[in-house]
Amino acid sequence: MLINVLLAEDHNLVRNGIKSLLDSEPNINVIGEAANGTQAVQFLQKTNEVNLIVADYNMPGMTGGELITQLRLNFKDLKIIILSMSDQEKHVFESISCGANGYLLKNVSKDELIFAIKHVMTGEKYICSELSLRMFDKLSNHAAINLDGINDFTKRELEVLKLIASGLTNNEIAEKLFTSRRTVEGHRQSLIDKTKVPNSAALIMFAFRTGIIN
Predict the structure, then answer these.
(1) What is the residue-level pLDDT of the chain in tens, covering all 214 positions?
(2) Residues 107, 182 within the same domain
(3) 138: which of 19, 29, 54, 145 lies 20 to 30 Å off by Cα?
(4) How far apart (Å, rounded) are the C-alpha atoms in residues 126 and 10?
(5) Of 106, 130, 154, which marks where a domain is finished?
(6) Residue-range definition of the domain harbouring residue 28
(7) Main-chain phi, psi angles of 115, to 5 degrees
(8) Residues with Cβ < 8 Å from 135, sequence gap 6 or more?
(9) SS3 of 67, please?
């Protein structure tokens, strides 16, 4: 399968380097470039050939979360990978919760970048190994983590947790489960309280660690 990529990166040298790397890989073709989120959206409006966008998180004019939200709203089948210098947990969680399929740091190897692209094209999510290990370590060292909390989850809470880990927003979860946003927010808070994790990002990692999400 040929993967047509739109590359959104505001630094020319970085963009050229990533483009050269991707174009050297069989079955991956960079067919468009953008220096900011607005240009990326404009390019996508002119063609339906793009399968995947690889975008920086911090670009002029539009935040990473805003870009992902627009892309997910208007180009539902598009796969989205964030390739960023930012290793802040809040940026990772915002990206995934807004609908990104993957989040990678710019220091990843070529092999991991290519693996991530092919992985998300199958419909799965991917967070680079460095961030994943860091988050797992943080959870492992969290004194208050309650690995038995899973036994207290209701069926609906498990459904909500799986949808959170899939990157759906509260509104999307509410629509899918035929309930209200306020109810979903209540389930999310209940999950955090039961597992005693500090935030929603850690809640997602809890789900992976305990095998709720594969």
Answers:
(1) 799 999 999 999 999 999 999 999 999 999 999 999 999 999 999 999 999 999 999 998 888 889 999 999 999 899 999 999 988 878 888 888 888 999 999 999 999 999 999 989 988 888 887 887 676 666 555 434 455 556 678 889 988 988 887 777 788 899 989 999 899 999 988 988 888 776 776 777 777 767 676 5
(2) no
(3) 54
(4) 23
(5) 130
(6) 3-130
(7) -60, -45
(8) 89, 127, 201, 202, 205
(9) helix
In the numeric block, which tokens belong to residue 24?
Answer: 């050297």
Cβ-in-10-Å burial (0-12, 13-18, 19+) of 13 comes to: exposed
- According to DSSP, the β-strands at 58-59 and 62-63 are antiparallel
Count of Cβ atoms closer than 10 Å to residue 110 Cβ: 12
Overall domain count for the chain: 2
Asked whether residue 104 falls in the same domain as residue 191, the answer is: no
Q: Same domain for 38 and 68?
A: yes
Is 136 inside any structural domain? no
User: What's the whole-model pTM score?
Assistant: 0.69
